[in-house]
Give the backbone structure.
Amino acid sequence: MGDCIYCGEPVGLMRSQHPECREKHDTAVTKIPQFFGQWFESALPPARFRELAAEVARTHYVDGPRFVELTKDGFGALIEKALADHLLTDEEEEKVVGLLREFGMTLDDLPKPIGQRLIKCAILRDLDAGVVHERINLKGQVPINLGAKEHLPNAIEEAIAIRDKN
């Protein structure tokens, strides 16, 4: 007689799971990412949200590695929902970053497209506000090998001229 792969209780001969346990697990796999999408509209603090998500995972037989995957999917749902009608504001971005920290994650832990969307949003928000951050700091001469008929675009030439004046 085997044990259920979800709850660990005896399940019977030639079986590996209880139908109820499988149903609870499948429900959690669907619902946990959806909870993330709903979190933006709630006033729930990040710590409490993490506790609730972990409790749902525990009571619905979602193990640690699977919970991490669902969490990443959840952040994808959260960001998609937040970006559905506008760019993220500074406050919304801070809220997302705070939730990431609460789950012990960084942008690098998220699937590449999700993290890139957040970075692109920050850049677009800055550009919309007329702020251009210098994201790369180069020291010394930067060798740029231009061909005979190549030239720097006007914007780059102007930026270099301004930099050289200072």
Notes: The first strand starts at residue 2 and ends at 3. The chain has six helices and two strands. The first helix runs from residue 19 to 39. Strands lie at 2-3, 10-12.
